[in-house]
Amino acid sequence: MAGVYIHIPFCKSRCKYCDFFSTTLLDQREKYVAAVLKEAEARQKEMTDVRTVYLGGGTPSLLTCRQIESLLEAVHADRAEEVTIEANPGDISREGLEELRKAGVNRVSIGVQSLHDRLLTLTGRRHTADEARKAVEAAQKAGIDNISVDLIYGLPTQSTEDWAEDIRETADMGVQHLSCYCLSYEDGTPLQRMLERGEVTETDEDTENMMHDMLCDLAEAKGYEHYEVSNFAKPGFRSRHNSAYWTRTAYTGLGAGAHSYDGERTRRANVCDLNKYMAAPAEAYTAERLTDTDIYNERVMLALRTAEGVQREELRPESIAAAEKYLQRGLLRQQGGQIAATREGLHILNMIIEDMMI
Ligand code: SF4
């Protein structure tokens, strides 16, 4: 067993672009934590060799330190080498983070998203840019020396200069890891409705690609390795938990909406419904048995998202034929036996992956 993911589906308010499973029913937190503890108890056998723990959401920083401690204890986080909590600026203080550090948290992932107040307001984030800066500083002062920051590009009205400023300033704050995502308009979100009403304009593809290239250049110039399509790390600070997803290592997901993988053929998804989950925490799930084709396609897709890429000798002839086309066009590169996307290839990575899957 490699990792344990615990989903904390509570948010104070909903961001306008978000379609993750979360709720604003904060009064359910205590009951929910009790349900997750029950699920952890029932799935103890899966957690004999825990290497990483990740509390994600939602907003895990909305739990009390006592609640977080009880969850960490239930999954044997004391044996893990990496224990991450996602936190939103505005919910965290130096004192709170010091307590969490003492409870075993050694990595904090902060949802900064932008350092421009105009863009934070537009997307419905609850915090200001200044609060985001202070959150990073609080984590550093609390002695957390493995900090990741989430940033978004391709936001309506965000200029390339706005984006460059965000990357530069975040890097200059001395964080060890960056996770950077291009905005997507998801069905049913307020931002999607704003787009349909013409209140915001979608960033065009060329600008998104330009922003992606700026990100790669600036992050690399600041000493980050671009190790996965959306992730950049200072040497030695790759996310071990997420790296296990990309190499298809087993993980246990606890909580409503959490996913698990047994490292072989079974993927499991807990129900995305707070009440159904709390009524039967260890039983409200569906399981899927993967076929050989599913496993192959997952391997190709996940490996091509990483800087290491996929091993040529693992590929079937039809995937090699598809890859050759992109190798000739300079959209894939081959080094030793590994095939990976070039910078330009990352712009159309989904298309390349689709072509190489069987
Ligand atoms: S805080 Fe995160 S999970 Fe909650 S609504 Fe905003 S983006 Fe979604």
Question: What topology emerges from the helices and strands here?
Answer:
Blueprint: E1 3-8, H1 29-42, E2 52-57, H2 65-74, E3 82-87, H3 94-102, E4 107-113, H4 117-122, H5 129-141, E5 147-153, H6 160-172, E6 177-182, H7 190-196, H8 205-221, E7 225-228, E8 231-233, H9 240-246, E9 251-254, E10 259-261, E11 266-270, H10 274-279, E12 285-289, H11 292-304, E13 310-311, H12 317-328, E14 332-335, E15 338-341, H13 343-347, H14 349-356
Parallel strand pairs: 1-2, 1-9, 2-3, 3-4, 4-5, 5-6
Antiparallel strand pairs: 6-8, 7-8, 10-11, 11-12, 13-15, 14-15
Bound molecules: iron/sulfur cluster.
Summary, kept brief:
This protein is of the alpha/beta class and 358 residues long. The protein has helices spanning 29-42, 65-74, 94-102, 117-122, 129-141, 160-172, 190-196, 205-221, 240-246, 274-279, 292-304, 317-328, 343-347, 349-356, and strands at residues 3-8, 52-57, 82-87, 107-113, 147-153, 177-182, 225-228, 231-233, 251-254, 259-261, 266-270, 285-289, 310-311, 332-335, 338-341. The chain has a nine-stranded mixed β-sheet with strand order 7-8-6-5-4-3-2-1-9, with helices on both faces.
